[in-house]
């Protein structure tokens, strides 16, 4: 690229001009060193042009072209050193070394009346070779630069050198020669847009032959492109263009016979022609920044099709011949030739999946991404229905040869894995929020229009991150979040009443779906390193069995475990025997609690029998210094040692049936009752005597090992939740306030250990002495099957408490202030939970909805 300055531009003007800020942050990180030349030359020099050369290893090297009243040798003398080789000859030209005060060494040469200066000797020498005819110079169509008011000239045929410089070395062979067929051209730069900056770049680029596949894709007659009807709104980047139905392979694919399917296609030109005849003449590429998989895998190629039935028949024949695999509506193939036949000559895949979605096919490295695109198409969550996108597209011609669009909020994260970390590639992205680029072929040239826009983004309290459709059934419990793979991002696993267990990546795309056959799942799946080999397994209780799959959805050996009676409690996985290997803990309809080994049989001492059926998940934790397995059944709380023997003092009985799972904290057990009371079980003091009463039905203190105290909370089932250290207003004495909570508009606060409770239509926080510290009502019955959640939703350092009403609406309040939190989705949900899914630090709410599972990201 060559930047041509206005007449009479001094070095100082060049340093402070319009382009200096951009150049300093991108091509010229050492621009200030040029100031020394300015000081030495004074007003004698004028800057004519700046060449940005790809001669440096990982950044653009500047070559300054100057003229004026001082010669190159005289200017060089200001920076020479005694007893040092201050110059050398190159191609018959003297090259001077300039030793700058900051320690940098620059290089200078005089070419006719022009002085050329660069901090990179190779860049300067390349210019010398071009001047002396030893190296091809940038030649314009017609021999001279275009006669138009332009200040930037781009050597488009050498753009691959620039791209290779910024990209990771492994991608450089794919880039090399990619711009063959384009000629050097002027680039007009214009700033517009009131308030928010818009930079318009336009150019008319002459075409030549031969042409690379990329240039040939651009050099097609303009049409009305309509592939944005199939591109999800959250695509980081996409391009749409035309694709010929040529009935043959591209030149690069013609040389590929790496797989059985490649060779099969090579030997059957009639098959190639048959497949080609089913394809349409428009195609698209889309790249996504996702939270689940590497962006290197998150690309898709789309192609219109004209004969869906015939194409499916051809695919089925390939599967029958053992050259592909079909899974439902998706096919998997391994053939670079087929990929380029379907997607076009730029399609880079060898192993890929294909989905036929009505009048378009989608190629991607994995089926989960195809399913996600299909969902977005069906729900109209595509760019064609995005008014902001359409308004920017209307800035370009209606008929185009190609169109590209990038949203920098995701594009930066998407492109980063492709770039060389030592380059300054990402710096170029600081100058736009949105990029739109159109290409229109006009005879033997293409007209390029690029708009780089900075936009004022609307700040919504949450972002609709993704939706995964569930056509049958609903969630059996909250989703489970954890790492199926050894990666930095979490995955999501859930079960449905349609007897399915589904694993999703953090972006909502499917990893696998597994079946529990005729057995309905109970509760939520459990993620655990079942074989202690650093491989996560997915396990769940369903019917009278325990199912287990690896992280690819394949059934584990010996699974499912089968019991004689139906399972009644969600699965617990813990190392009960303390052997280093986990056991599976479930209760069954016959009032038994089982502890099953890796072979699916009870370990020594188990099962144990209770007074009635256990309906909630047991707890395994330390009680009074030793591990205990704790469960409640009816109005009794049981605690067993690892060998199945009851702990001393157990079972403990209460005066009403209990509800939910017990909560253990510092040798105290807390649990809710079906009579509206909260129970505390401990050897020592628990709830204050003046606030509580004996909870075992006695009217006088008992000599039992464990004492039971209870406080009245509300009517109906009381569900005890987690215990957290939280900041709440300081309690005032009755004399100060006539009650037990502060009435000040700006109360003092303190940290307290609090237990969350939900009952009736209200949510409560009690301290461990039984004092009410927080209470809010939703005005409708609360869904006590969905646990209370405490989470700092907007990352402001003040956690919120979240509950769900039975009609599905979520409610939240900031605990410290008691103020209602207004930034939640109004969608009716079931079993909501919170998690952090990616590196953005945002809190995500994941919940079942009327027809699937949705995720929302709460903005900070």
> Please, what is the average pLDDT?
87
Provide a count of the helices. 17
Helix percent reads 10-25%
- What's the total count of β strands? 52
Main sheet specs: 20 strands, antiparallel
Shape summary: elongated
Strand content: 35-45%
Ends apart, CA distance between termini: 41 Å
Structural class: alpha+beta
List unreliable stretches of 5+ residues. 738-743
Rg calc: 35 Å
Structure description:
- The structure is a single chain.
- With 860 residues, the protein is an alpha+beta fold.
- The chain is 15% helix and 36% strand.
- The protein contains 17 helices and 52 strands.
- The strands form nine sheets. It has a 20-stranded antiparallel β-sheet, sandwiched between helices. Strands 38-39-40-42-41 form a five-stranded antiparallel β-sheet, with no helix packed on it. It has a four-stranded antiparallel β-sheet with strand order 21-52-51-50.
- The longest helix is centred in the middle third of the chain and has 13 residues, at 308-320.
In a few lines, what is going on in this structure?
By secondary structure, the chain is an alpha+beta fold. The protein is 15% helix and 36% strand.
Topology at a glance:
Blueprint: E1 2-4, H1 11-16, H2 20-25, H3 34-41, E2 45-53, E3 61-68, H4 72-77, E4 87-90, E5 93-99, E6 105-111, E7 114-118, H5 121-131, E8 152-154, H6 159-166, H7 172-175, E9 185-192, E10 198-206, H8 213-218, E11 237-242, H9 251-254, H10 260-266, H11 269-277, E12 279-287, E13 299-305, H12 308-320, E14 325-327, E15 330-334, H13 336-343, E16 351-357, E17 360-364, H14 367-378, H15 387-393, E18 402-407, H16 408-415, E19 434-442, E20 445-453, E21 462-469, E22 480-482, E23 491-496, E24 500-504, E25 510-515, E26 521-528, E27 537-542, E28 545-549, E29 561-562, E30 572-574, E31 583-587, E32 592-596, E33 608-609, E34 619-623, E35 626-633, E36 636-640, E37 652-653, E38 658-665, E39 668-673, E40 677-682, E41 693-694, E42 707-712, E43 718-729, H17 734-737, E44 749-759, E45 762-767, E46 772-777, E47 789-791, E48 800-804, E49 810-814, E50 830-835, E51 843-849, E52 852-858
Antiparallel strand pairs: 1-2, 1-8, 2-3, 3-7, 4-5, 5-6, 6-7, 8-9, 9-10, 10-20, 11-12, 11-18, 12-13, 13-17, 14-15, 15-16, 16-17, 18-19, 19-20, 21-52, 22-23, 23-24, 24-25, 26-27, 27-28, 28-29, 30-31, 31-32, 32-33, 34-35, 35-36, 36-37, 38-39, 39-40, 40-42, 41-42, 43-44, 44-45, 45-46, 47-48, ...
């Amino acid at each position: 690229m060559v930047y041509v300055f206005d007449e009479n531009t001094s070095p100082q003007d060049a340093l402070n001009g319009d382009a200096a800020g951009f150049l300093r942050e991108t091509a010229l990180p050492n621009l200030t060193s040029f100031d020394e030349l300015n000081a030495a030359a004074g007003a004698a020099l004028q800057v004519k042009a700046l060449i940005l050369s790809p001669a440096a290893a990982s950044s653009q090297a500047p070559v300054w072209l100057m003229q004026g009243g001082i010669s190159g040798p005289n200017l060089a003398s200001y920076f020479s050193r005694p007893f040092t080789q201050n110059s050398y000859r190159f191609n018959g030209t003297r090259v001077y070394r300039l030793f700058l005060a900051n320690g940098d060494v620059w290089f200078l040469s005089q070419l006719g009346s022009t002085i050329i200066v660069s901090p990179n000797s190779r860049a300067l020498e390349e210019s010398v070779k071009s001047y002396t005819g030893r190296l091809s110079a940038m030649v314009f169509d017609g021999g001279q630069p275009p006669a138009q008011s332009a200040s930037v000239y781009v050597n488009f045929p050498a753009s691959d050198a620039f791209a290779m410089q910024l990209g990771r070395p492994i991608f450089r062979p794919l880039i090399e020669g990619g711009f063959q067929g384009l000629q050097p051209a002027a680039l007009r730069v214009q700033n517009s847009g009131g308030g928010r900056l818009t930079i318009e770049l336009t150019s008319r680029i002459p075409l030549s032959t031969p042409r690379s596949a990329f240039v040939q894709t651009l050099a097609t007659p303009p049409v009305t492109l309509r592939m944005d009807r199939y591109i999800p709104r959250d695509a980081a980047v996409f391009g749409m263009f035309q694709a010929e139905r040529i009935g043959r392979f591209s030149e690069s694919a013609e040389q590929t016979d790496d797989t059985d399917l490649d060779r099969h296609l090579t030997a059957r030109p009639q098959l190639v022609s048959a497949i080609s005849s089913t394809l349409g003449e428009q195609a698209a590429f889309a790249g996504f920044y996702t939270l689940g998989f590497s962006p290197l895998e998150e690309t898709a190629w789309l192609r219109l099709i004209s004969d869906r039935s015939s194409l499916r028949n051809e695919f089925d024949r390939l599967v029958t011949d053992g050259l592909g695999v079909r899974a439902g509506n998706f096919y998997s193939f391994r053939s670079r030739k087929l990929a380029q036949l379907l997607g076009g000559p730029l399609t880079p895949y060898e192993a890929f999946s294909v989905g036929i979605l009505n009048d378009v096919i989608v190629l991607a490295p994995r089926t989960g991404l195809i399913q996600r695109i299909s969902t977005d198409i069906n729900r109209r969550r595509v760019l064609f229905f995005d008014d902001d996108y359409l308004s920017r597209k209307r800035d370009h011609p209606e008929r185009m040869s190609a169109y590209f669009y990038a949203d920098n909020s995701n594009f930066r994260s998407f492109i980063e894995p492709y770039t060389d970390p030592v380059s300054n590639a990402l710096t170029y992205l600081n100058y736009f929020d949105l990029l739109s680029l159109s290409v229109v072929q006009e005879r033997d040239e293409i007209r390029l229009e690029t708009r780089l826009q900075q936009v004022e983004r609307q700040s919504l309290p949450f972002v609709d991150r993704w939706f995964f459709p569930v056509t049958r059934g609903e969630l059996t419990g909250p989703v489970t979040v954890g790492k199926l793979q050894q990666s930095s991002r979490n995955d999501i696993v859930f079960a449905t009443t349609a007897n399915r267990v589904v694993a999703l990546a953090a972006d909502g795309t499917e990893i696998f779906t597994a079946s529990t056959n005729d057995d309905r799942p109970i509760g939520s799946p459990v993620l655990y390193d079942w074989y202690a080999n650093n491989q996560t397994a997915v396990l769940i209780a369903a019917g009278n069995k325990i199912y287990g799959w690896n992280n690819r959805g394949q059934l584990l050996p010996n699974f499912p475990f089968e019991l004689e009676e139906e399972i009644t409690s969600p699965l617990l996985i813990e190392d009960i025997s303390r052997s280093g290997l986990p056991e599976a803990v479930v209760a069954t309809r016959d009032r038994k609690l089982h502890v099953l080994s890796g072979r699916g049989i009870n370990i020594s001492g188990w099962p144990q029998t209770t007074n009635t059926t256990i309906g909630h998940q047991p707890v395994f934790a330390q009680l009074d210094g030793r591990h205990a397995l704790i469960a409640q059944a009816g109005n009794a709380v049981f605690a067993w040692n690892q060998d199945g023997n009851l702990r001393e003092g157990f079972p403990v009985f209460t005066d009403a049936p209990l509800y939910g799972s017990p909560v253990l904290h510092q040798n105290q057990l807390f649990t809710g009752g079906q009579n509206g009371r909260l129970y505390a079980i401990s050897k020592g003091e628990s709830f204050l005597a003046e606030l509580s009463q004996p909870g075992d039905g006695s009217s006088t203190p008992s000599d039992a090992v464990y004492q039971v105290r209870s406080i009245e909370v509300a009517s109906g089932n009381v569900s005890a939740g987690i215990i957290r250290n939280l900041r709440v207003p300081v309690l005032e004495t009755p004399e100060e306030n006539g009650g037990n909570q502060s009435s000040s508009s700006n109360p003092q606060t303190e940290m307290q250990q609090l237990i969350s409770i939900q009952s009736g239509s209200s949510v409560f926080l009690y301290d461990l002495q039984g004092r009410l510290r927080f209470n809010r009502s939703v005005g409708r019955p609360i869904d006590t099957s969905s646990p209370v959640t405490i989470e700092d939703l907007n990352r402001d350092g003040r956690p919120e408490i979240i509950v769900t009403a039975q009609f599905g609406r979520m409610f939240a309040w900031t605990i410290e202030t008691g103020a209602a939190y207004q930034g939640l989705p109004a969608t009716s949900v079931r079993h909501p939970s919170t998690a952090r899914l990616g590196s953005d630090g945002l809190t995500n709410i994941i919940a079942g909805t009327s027809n699937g599972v949705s995720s929302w990201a709460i903005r900070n």
